Amino acid sequence: MVSESTIKEMNSIALKLKVDVLEMIGINTAGHLGGSFSLAETIAVLYFHRLNIGKDKLNDPRRDRLLLSKGHAALIQYAALCEKGFFPREELKRVKTLAGLLQGHPDLSIPGIEAVTGSLGQGLSVGTGMALALRLDKSTARIFVIMGDGEQSEGQLWEAAQAAANFKVDNLTAFIDWNKVQATGPTKDVFNIPDLEKKWKAFGWEVFKVNGHDPGAIIETIEKAEAVRGKPSVIILDTVKGKGISFAEGNAAYHNGILDETAFGKAMKELDAAKKGA
What is the pLDDT at residue 202? Predict the structure, then answer.
């Protein structure tokens, strides 16, 4: 059972990360709000509760690795890395500029980033390779890979899923951010991938499904996934795109949308209200 204090802490961190993302996007510039917000609680749990990482462990072979395969949600990862001290907060103000460190997608030039994931579908392949390498080294470190639900239409992803099961890669935990909306509309309308649970089970994976906005449930599910032996595990995160901003929730326009001054102000007020009520 996860303590109430831990749940409260994770929710508080998730809200802070969302504020950072909103400030990184700013006014009248495009930014990936939707997919970043749907992952906030999971990122909070991984970076501030589960992962064995730190700026002092950048080259430590015993560190865990997190790969954001849905690289367009990099802003929420940057917010977490900044809070963990991997780079100064000033960098958040320079995101996606030539003067800054932080690019639009994860890049190895950024401290704490483990792989370049600019093209959807590749993260699980990279993660599977890393997990196999760790096993050869008899390392206790684990690999975590976060995918999008729209990404499930990528062929390379399923090749990796098959390989991971074939090689019994049980030091790998994957996540699917099942927020049901991608860049141009609902995933079921763009490229329908029904029965995700059955598909992953058919590929030989242990499958879990959890409320992706409930830190306590996320923590407990990760623990269950890590206890699985002889095969990899995938956690389907049932989430809402743009969670926490009323006008962005479930709205494809905010996959990579622009906030005018009014929308930005409204979004910030809603996050402030959520922090006061937490």
Answer: 98
Q: Tell me if 167 is assigned to some domain.
A: yes
CATH number reported for the structural domain that contains residue 266 in this entry: 3.40.50.970
In a 13 Å sphere around the CA of 144, the CA atoms on its Cβ side amount to 23
- Of 182, 206, 237, the residue nearest 46 (C-alpha): 237
Q: Per the structure, how many domains does the chain have?
A: 1
Helix or strand run (H / E) with residue 210: strand 206-211
Query: Is the distance from CB of 86 to CB of 78 less than 8 angstroms?
Result: no
The dihedral formed by the CA atoms of 203, 206, 209 and 210, expressed in degrees to the nearest 10: -140
Q: What is the pLDDT of residue 119?
A: 85
| Residue 109 covered by a domain | no
Q: 10 Å Cβ neighbour count for 250?
A: 15
| Residue that has been written with the tokens 């949600």 in this structure | 73
260 CB-contact burial (10 Å; exposed 0-12 / middle 13-18 / buried 19+): exposed
Task: Provide the domain limits for residue 247.
Answer: 4-69+119-277
Q: How confident is the model at residue 277 (pLDDT cuts 50, 70, 90)?
A: confident
In the beta sheet, which residues pair with residue 207?
Answer: 234
Q: Is-above-0.85 flag for pTM?
A: yes
Answer yes or no: is pLDDT of 106 > 90.
Answer: yes
Helical spans, DSSP H, in the chain: 4-25, 34-38, 40-45, 74-83, 123-136, 155-166, 187-190, 196-202, 215-226, 261-277
Pairwise CA distance, residues 156 & 180, whole Å: 21
CA 243, CA 37: separation in Å to the nearest integer? 6
